[in-house]
Design goal:
It is built from 13 helices and twelve strands. It is an alpha/beta fold. It folds into three domains: about 30 residues; about 220 residues, SGNH hydrolase (Rossmann fold), CATH 3.40.50; about 80 residues, no CATH class. A five-stranded parallel β-sheet has the order 6-5-7-11-12. It has a three-stranded mixed β-sheet with strand order 8-9-10. A two-stranded antiparallel ribbon has the order 1-2. Helix 4 packs across helix 12, helix 7 crosses helix 8 and helix 8 crosses helix 10.
Length: about 350
């Protein structure tokens, strides 16, 4: 009896100690998450994070707090007025450019801006990027309706064709963000039904809310290689929904413009920007058919970007701090060699 009590006592204390260690060492990864931003309807972009707020992002190997500035973007250095005598670059890309899935605190465009400042060049590199889920058509509209107000000289745009043309609604429901296409009531009802099912599994939700040890076990199991492919069905899906506090409809971003329509949108943007003395430069990627695009459009190639370099990551958009720094330096060197007028560089 005494032996049984001792063993029981030992395991109770072991659980308590492990729980305390996880609450200290793995707090950022396992803490109860804030909802993913307060979303507001935007006349240009559909739904965007509310300005002057912050939210938590969670993905495999990533859990960081994201701050939204007063303009609704993520770069804290964005200001309306350009410094006198400076050349302003606006970068507009996807999840690689936002830096949300990087181990680095700053994105590679923001680090590039730091390099320009440290080298005393009269150049600003501001990051207006939004996560890939919004679709590239939104990025075009963002340039036309918002970014031009910041008086850029050069816009570096990362898009893939063809463009999605859906408007996505984001809504809070029982502590979880749901995403569905505007006016798609069937998907909205289905998403809410899944969340209602999770709410009925009280042993799971109560344990998850109370115990860091149980959360750690759930995270470990979901991220195991053999379980990654099962995140969209069964109990693994429920764990993923409850820990990420996010659920999206299956039909998002599947309605697209045709290839020719997408090309025409970019060509018209290039001409309109040129009339306002703003240069458009496309980040070179495999989705662009250059034979269809305006022959005067310039392309910027970053050899360190994407591809096999990041294929070892659990999340396709994530990369470590050193890779982010490497991208920043490559962007800086490419810009000063080819794209920025010499009078903004040779000022020391």
């Amino acid at each position: 009896m005494n032996k049984t009590r001792f063993i029981l006592f030992f395991f109770v204390w072991l659980i308590i100690i492990v729980e305390l260690v996880l609450r200290t060492a793995s707090y950022e990864l396992l803490k109860t998450r804030k909802l993913e931003a307060d979303w507001i309807e935007d006349s240009i972009m559909g739904y965007l994070p509310k300005p002057k707020t912050s939210f938590n992002l969670i993905a495999p190997n990533v859990n960081k707090e994201i701050t939204v500035n007063a303009f609704g973007f993520y770069d804290s250095k964005i200001k309306i007025n350009k410094q006198r005598g400076y050349y302003r670059i606006a970068v507009l890309g996807n999840s690689y450019e936002t830096g949300h899935f990087s181990e680095s605190v700053k994105s590679y465009p923001e680090l590039c801006d730091d390099i320009f400042k440290n080298e005393s060049h009269k150049v600003e590199c501001l990051n207006f990027s939004i996560d890939g889920e919004y679709g590239d058509w939104y990025r075009i509209r963002l340039i036309e309706n918002k970014i031009l107000k910041f008086d850029p000289d050069l816009i570096i745009l990362n898009v893939k064709m063809p463009f999605s043309n859906q408007i996505v609604v984001k809504e809070h429901y029982k502590g979880i963000v749901i995403e569905y296409e505007q006016n798609d009531e069937q998907s909205r009802i289905g998403l809410k039904k899944k969340i209602d099912e999770i709410a009925t599994i009280k042993p799971f939700t109560v344990l998850f809310d109370l115990s860091f040890l149980f959360r750690g076990f759930c995270v470990l199991m979901v991220q195991k290689k053999e379980n990654i492919g099962n995140r969209n069905n069964g109990f693994w899906e429920k764990i993923e929904i409850y820990r990420t506090r996010k659920l999206s409809a299956d039909n998002l971003y599947k309605r697209e413009f045709s290839e020719l329509e997408s090309v025409d949108i970019v060509n018209r943007l290039f001409i309109n920007l040129g009339e306002q003395d703003v240069e458009l430069c496309l980040l070179d990627n495999n989705s662009l058919d250059k034979s269809l695009l305006n022959e005067n459009i310039r392309y910027l190639k970053l050899n360190s970007y994407g591809g096999e370099k990041f294929s070892s990551s659990v999340n396709g958009d994530s990369f470590d701090k050193n890779e982010t720094i490497m991208l920043a330096w490559e962007l800086y060197e490419t810009l000063i060699e080819t794209y920025i007028p010499a009078n903004y560089i040779d000022n020391k």
